[in-house]
Amino acid sequence: MEAVITLLPGDGIGPDVTQCALEVLDAVATRYDHRFTFDTQLIGGAAIDMEGDPLPAATIASCKGADAVLLGAVGGPKWSDPNAAVRPEQGLLKLRSVLGVFANIRPVKIYRELVGASPLRPEILRGVDMVVVRELTGGIYFGDKTRDETSASDLCTYTVSEVERIVRVAAKLATVRRGKLCSVDKANVLETSRLWRDVTDRLMPAEFPEIEVETLLVDAAAMHLLSRPADFDVIVTENMFGDILTDEASMLAGSLGMLPSASLGDTSTGLYEPIHGSAPDIAGKGIANPCAAIASAALALRHSLGLETEALAIESAIAAAIANGARTVDIATAGDSPVSTSEMTAEIIRGLQ
Ligand code: IPM
Ligand code: MN
Q1: DSSP labels for 118-149?
Q2: Among 68, 76, 283, 290, whose Cα sits 20 to 30 Å from the Cα of 12?
Q3: Whose CA is nearest to atom 12 of ligand 1?
Q4: Which residues contact 186 (CB under 8 A, 6 or more apart)?
Q5: Is 109 an annotated catalytic residue?
């Protein structure tokens, strides 16, 4: 098939890992006889430096015209002054919003061989296989913001339809998985959470009577994620809670560098990005873990291009590289000699053949 993919390397290790995803996609194209055309565009701090805008018009146009968008990471100390007028993160938030990708799917999968890389005990990690569905275009990230010398505010808003559509995405996912949905909120304090819970309590038995539903307050959920992670199948939650809980959940997998994500809306154009940030301290050093970015490319093939076989081939190649002992420094344990970003990528590409 032919497909157009926009690449947004962004900042920090973003360019390092996006290059790896590109190489893997090129290898897939050759092996399966597809033609992928890549269009690289600016976002984040790199776009501020070049154009004074974290999301230039040309980037938006390219993303809207593409079959899928692959993003590296945005942000870094250079642009993070609390009084800065424009910020790299604004570019990413606006992109999510203009693409309408309200459902951020973050699978948390554990490789047996990496159990030792997690700070948790192996018996707690046994059987962990969950997907966090994070609402991505609403809530406190997008509400009005104010700031003066003595105070600041961030408004958190959700509408019934915003909650309904994300809960439906999560519930549909649960039906093809283990049939369990956990909705996470803070209904003992927040009005938006009480709305979230009302909608979930009404919608789930009416539309998905076969799904087992559990509701947790976010503080308890943070604890249960560490004490009984294997119990979770699909977790659905609002934007900021999903952001925080998935960084926590990445420790189950051993590293933030392992978790991919897919952001989907009502059209087939999706935005695919590792859940990790720009890690400026290791940018350009050739040691970043490319697995999350490469696994995000696999999700792009699955969800936007309909190439399930090819997506599985990439996922198996990542698993094979890990089984063969390839470890970037973030997932290396005592006795391993860590490989570089490009060696890890080459090992994954070898597994595709
Ligand atoms: C993520 C990131 C972003 C977020 C930042 C970079 C705006 O942390 O994708 O998880 O908070 O959504
Ligand atoms: Mn995050």
Answers
A1: SSS-HHHHTT-EEEEEEE-SSGGGTS-EEE-S
A2: 68
A3: 243
A4: 193, 217, 218, 219, 241
A5: no
Is the pLDDT reported for residue 353 higher than 90? no
Q: Which listed ligand is nearest to 88 at the C-alpha?
A: 1
Task: Report the SS3 class of residue 83.
Answer: coil
- Which of 243, 228, 251, 253 is CA-nearest to residue 273? 243
- Catalytic entry in 16, 67, 186, 330: 186
Q: β-strands 145-147, 152-154: how paired?
A: antiparallel
Count CB-CB contacts under 10 A for residue 77.
11
Contact present, 13 and 75 (Cβ < 8 Å):
no
pLDDT digits (tens, 9 = 90+) for 270-279: 999 999 999 9
Question: How far apart, in whole angstroms, are the C-alpha atoms of residue 12 and residue 22?
Answer: 17
Question: In this model, does residue 64 exceed pLDDT 90?
Answer: yes
Task: List CB-based neighbours of ion ligand 2 within 5 Å.
Answer: 243
Helices vs strands, H then E, count in the chain: 12, 12
Q: Cα separation of 228 and 245, whole Å? A: 14
> What domains lie within the chain, and their CATH numbers?
1-101+270-353 (3.40.718.10), 119-252 (3.40.718.10)
Contact 89, 75 (CB under 8 A): yes
- Residue in 185, 146, 147 with CA at minimum distance from that of residue 166: 185
Please give the model's pTM, rounded to 2 decimal places.
Answer: 0.98
Q: Record the tokens describing residue 125, joined without a space.
A: 């990690």
Provide the 3-class DSSP secondary structure of residue 324.
coil
The answer to whether the CB of 124 falls within 8 A of the CB of 87 is: no
